[in-house]
Design brief:
Number of strands: 24
CATH topology of the largest domain: Jelly Rolls
CATH class of the largest domain: Mainly Beta
CATH architecture of the largest domain: Sandwich
Number of domains: 4
Order of helices and strands: HEEEEEEEHEEEEEEEEEEEEEEEEE
CATH superfamily of the largest domain: Galactose-binding domain-like
Distance between the termini: 147 Å
Radius of gyration: 41 Å
Number of helices: 2
Amino acid sequence: MRYSIRIKMMWGLTLLLSMLVFYGCMEQDQMYRQYVPDGGIVYPSKAENAFTKPGIGRVYISWLNTTSTVIRAGIWWNDYADSTFVENITAAMDTVTVSVEVPEGTYSFYIKTIDKHGNVSIPVEVIGRSIGANYMSGFYHRTISGYRTKGANSLIILWDDADDSKGALTNEIIYTAEDNTEKTLLIPVSEKETEIDDYKTGTEFKYNTSYQPDPDEEMVVSTDYRTITDVYVFLEKTIGSVIAVSSTYNDPTCQPPGAYDGNYTTRWHSNTTGYPHFITINLGMETSIRRLAIWPSMYPGFPDRRMPSLIEWEVSTDNATWTNLGEYNYLYDDSQTNRNPREYFFSPVNARYIRLRGLDDPSGSRIMTLGEIDVYTSIGNPSDLPTPPNP
């Protein structure tokens, strides 16, 4: 009997406590119901599959737009100190992409999508990199080894190998055409020579080099443009020829064409009639002469000593009226080791024909030999001062 009363009392106490908890919860529910929307808290779809791509002075951030309810998004970085917002997101957008301008560096970005009711999604973090001067300093303009021309409005650019280790792709060339219009060429870095056939002779041009550092990324970076001016342009010898000499030695290996054929192992050899000797060349085009060079011939296996000690350069546009550019030392070298060309620089002078005269002979052989003559025009105004003639 005593046990039965005790059990009834315990059940009564449990029922009382349960009722107190139930009514207490009802009061709390009533207290917070006004702050919770019907149906509970709503989070819009987050930025799905978010990723970044590096850019110059910026980071490109993209994500999939998987719902029609999102109308805008916010992006925060620098520990939420900086932000930007993307407006007018529509259901028609499969992917949302935004360009965030930031200084060079690596950043953590937090993306939150927002629906028309102002509900905000949970944040999605992505890491992005902005490229700047430090990064770009590792990329160089492809170097140019020389310039040639083979006629009016012709320019041939000779390229050194590109830096394939950094993903070199293309060179873009911007030049002035003969009709004074600006034109652009885009060439692959595999091209060793680029020939422009409508180039306005003597005008500057500029170029840059583009790279794709990571073959798995679409990002392409380009150097700034480099302007080419004040350089010499070599005249191709295929358009010119030797048209006159003072005399020729009776030997098939010593004929006049050997002095202007682009082959630095052939030569021209006068006979023994004695000085002065001369050779006249038709360049094949009228151009502005800026630089001339003489290569001594090789015989036998050494620079030929039978060269003049004093020379004279003349130029003409019609092979009738000649302009004397002056007398110059040949820089005769008795050591028999100096095969370097003897070079002479001039203020611009138009010519289609050049004539080299040998005036004096230090060896007493009465013979003049010549390995090769090189002729250069220019782009712009190279800095070499004109070679002073003998007083």
